[in-house]
Amino acid sequence: MSDQTTGAGGGEPQTEAPRRGRGGPRRGGAGGGGNDRGPRRPRENQGEERAEGELIDKLVAINRVAKVVKGGKNFGFAALVVVGDKKGRVGFGHGKAREVPEAIRKATEEAKKTLIRVPLREGRTLHHDGDGRWGAGKVMLRSAPAGKGLIAGGPMRAVLEVLGVSDVVAKSKGSSNPYNMVRATFDALKRQSSPRQIANRRSLKVADLIGRRKDGASLGEVASEG
Q: Do the Cβ atoms of 186 and 163 come closer than 8 Å?
């Protein structure tokens, strides 16, 4: 029989050919077949943080898109980046390019041009609660006492971290699209007001607003009066 390990004449035993396991070369690797799907999609890196001078930028999300053309596919990348100084200034931007580093660079440059200043209470939290909305994205931001910590996740956490907030409670109640969430968070931050701004708008003294705040009324309620 052909599957015997010993020849008919008592010769040396015949060894079977080794089976191919799963450890062979991958598709598209050295010695493997081609892979028409293009480069692997990079993972979202929400923890990447780089300091450039006084500003800190964080990569929130990156998306790969493909355009089918004659002869193959052309791949492009879109990056969403937030920038802040952790002292009350924050901005966001998005960029598109054929390579990931170039897309991130374009998004960072755009974010630096759209910086806004948000008044912070004691340099650690927001002055009052607020809601933000952009499209299907809905977010809720609440001020918190010292030691509460930054309770937020996803793109909202990246925005609040580079802003410099250390005590806040945030909740997303709408779309999980990172672009909508970031824009909704900025909509809520733009509605923040400090006691000084409210006093100037209503021709009052800051001490009067602070006194009413200690009596139990929140700054948001004081701002909506009148």
A: no
